[in-house]
Design goal:
Elements lengths: L1 E7 L2 E6 L10 E11 L1 H8 L9 E2 L3 E9 L11 E4 L2 E2 L5 H4 L10 E2 L11 E5 L3 E3 L6 H5 L1 H14 L6 E5 L5 H10 L3 E6 L2 H9 L4 E4 L5 H11 L5 E6 L5 H9 E9 L11 H6 L3 E4 L7 H9 L9 E6 L3 H10 L6 E5 L1
Parallel strand pairs: 11-12, 11-14, 12-13, 14-15, 15-16, 17-18
Antiparallel strand pairs: 1-2, 1-4, 3-5, 3-9, 3-18, 5-6, 6-10, 7-8
Helix pairs in contact: 4-5, 4-10, 7-8
The structure holds manganese (II) ion.
Manganese (II) ion binds next to helix 4.
């Protein structure tokens, strides 16, 4: 079978590997049908991921057909259509026992710490597999995962019906957050430096947009307050993750509000203890997802969520180089790119 392997940062090859063999009793072998390309796949390829190890078969957003199962797997069978949660946790560390397995002390992410889904067959543990209906299109099933990230962010933010959510940055992940906020009955103020992205955010249901090009943090905060009766946003999500956006989020959120971070950026942000204490802010990280697959699959099945709205391009997986070039050269017109198998 063919696999897409990043051998070292910057080098990607299409290798020929043997099809994985069922070994453990909870193994599930899946024939991959479609996979999404995520910003984090690109950072593993470029060598900017702080967590990846090499060589690595990348891809953590994928779906396919079960072809074989281990001896203990009784609730899945060959022919079932499934999608995969890339989060593997130990289940026994203190963090897992606290119910926070997505940041497990021994966390392994499929496609990051172990080989992922950009290959014709992949073997994963039963607990990572979620059955989907046989009529769900593959490109839809493949990108359940980015919506679980959005569901995690909104859950960490405590987003509720009637909330006004500030989303700093309207890039790749932002439209998924916006869609999930709208399902929850919250309104989004979206920001970005690029007007075209805000036009797109409007199309995705943004309540208000702010083009932050040339604006100071104080001006951005003032604008958010204008839109929120002088109070500030209930929840502020940093979806740009460039340091200064965290500062904007922390200042534009209301007292007793929640700020959520999503990025792995290590730039310092100017946030004072006074700002946090005097206004009792919660500043929370959000990583991957914590058991959000069932919720997102339910939203898709109920027609509340249309994942394919973010799909702009589809390539056969052997054209991965073309797909990466499109993402690099035309970022403003490229959102989710799907690889087919
Ligand atoms: Mn992803």
């Amino acid at each position: 079978m063919k696999v897409i392997r990043v051998t070292t940062p910057g080098t990607l090859v299409i290798d020929e590997d043997p099809i994985p063999v069922i070994e453990a009793s909870d193994d599930v072998l899946i024939q991959v049908k479609a996979a999404g390309i995520c910003g984090s796949d690109i950072s593993i390829y470029r060598g900017t991921s702080p967590v990846a190890t090499y060589p690595r078969v990348i891809g953590h957003e994928f779906a396919g057909i079960v072809t074989e199962v281990g001896s203990d797997v009784s609730d899945l069978a060959a022919g079932d259509h499934v999608t995969v949660n890339p989060v593997c946790n130990c289940g026994t560390c203190r963090v897992c026992k606290k119910g926070r397995g997505n940041v497990c002390a021994n966390l392994q992410v499929i496609g990051v710490h172990r080989d992922g889904g950009y290959r014709e067959y992949v073997k994963v543990p039963r607990k990572n597999v979620f059955k989907i209906s046989a009529d769900m299109p593959w490109e839809k099933a493949a990108i359940i995962e980015p919506y679980t990230v959005a569901a995690q962010v909104t859950s960490r933010g405590g987003v509720e019906e009637g909330d006004i959510v500030l989303v700093c940055g309207s890039g790749q992940i932002a439209p998924t957050i916006l869609q999930v906020c709208n399902i929850l009955g919250a309104k989004c103020i979206m920001t970005d430096l690029v007007e075209d992205r805000l036009t797109r955010a409007k199309e995705f249901g943004a309540w208000e947009t702010i083009c932050t090009k040339g604006m100071s943090t104080d001006e951005i905060v003032a604008k958010v307050k204008d839109l929120t009766d002088g109070i500030g946003a209930d929840v502020a999500i940093d979806a740009a993750c460039v340091g200064v956006t965290l500062e904007q989020a922390a200042k534009a959120v209301r007292s007793a509000g929640v700020v959520v971070t999503m990025g792995f950026h290590d730039k310092q942000a100017q946030i004072t203890e006074f700002n946090i204490t005097s206004r009792e802010l919660d500043i929370r990280g959000s990583r991957l997802n914590n058991n959000k697959f069932p919720q997102v699959i339910e939203w898709v099945n109920a027609g509340k969520l249309e994942p394919t709205k973010i799909v702009t391009d589809t390539f056969h997986f052997t054209d991965i180089e073309k797909a990466l070039t499109k993402l690099k050269d035309d970022p403003e017109n490229t959102m989710k790119v799907i690889l087919t198998f």
